[in-house]
Amino acid sequence: MIVSSVLQAIGLFVATNIDDIIVLSLFFARGAGQRGTTARITAGQYLGFAGILGTAVLVSLGAGAFLPEEAIPYFGLIPLALGLWAAWRAWRGSDDDDDDAKVEGKNVGVLTVAAVTFANGGDNIGVYVPVFLNVGPVAVVAYCVVFLLLVAILVMLAKFIATRRPIAEVLERWEHVLFPIVLIGLGIVILVSGGAFGL
């Protein structure tokens, strides 16, 4: 039964987190050349994902008052706001973009990564809750352990993608455009697919 739960957990994680590779790769591109980027992205991803798992477990335990299901789509406002802020900064600083700035990269904060990860996890919560409701407590623990182990693999895979020379060059050249577009798009998708604001 545990083996079956582990295999199901792997499949569920891949299905619900494949989109995170793109976002994390952009975070790695944004923080290229900055000391501690990998540690900050990893910590942020774990913090955000722990929030997703904690919420899913609480909701599945009947803590609907803690986070009503209708509130989940509004987490799309987080990446939307971060994307609009990044777009405004890119537009405002486009004239003074020099080689030194490219080499230095930009700091990627733990809380920014965590916020985007959590906001992007609305669909994860929506998928995990019914699964957790239909398995026993031991299986829920197995799912959570497997998910947390796979987060590290997800981060390393995103770093691998972002550091391949052809991909890294494209990301470095277009990161200031792609980063806000992906975040804004992510926010809109979360809001629309969840029916926020009656959309």
Keywords:
9 helices, mainly alpha, globular
Provide a quick synopsis of the model.
With about 200 residues, this protein is an all-alpha fold. The protein has nine helices and no strands.
Q: Could you explain the architecture of this structure?
A:
The protein has helices at residues 2-17, 20-30, 37-60, 77-92, 99-104, 110-119, 122-133, 137-162, 165-193. The chain has one domain. It contains 9 helices and no strands. 75% of the residues lie in helices and 0% in strands. The model is unreliable at 95-104 (pLDDT under 50). The radius of gyration is 18 Å and the shape is globular. Helix 2 (20-30) crosses helix 9, helix 3 (37-60) packs parallel to helix 6 and helix 4 (77-92) crosses helix 6. It is an all-alpha fold and 199 residues long. The termini are far apart. The chain crosses the membrane at residues 6-29, 41-65, 71-88, 108-129, 135-157, 177-197. This is Cadmium transporter. Keywords: Membrane, Transmembrane, Transmembrane helix.
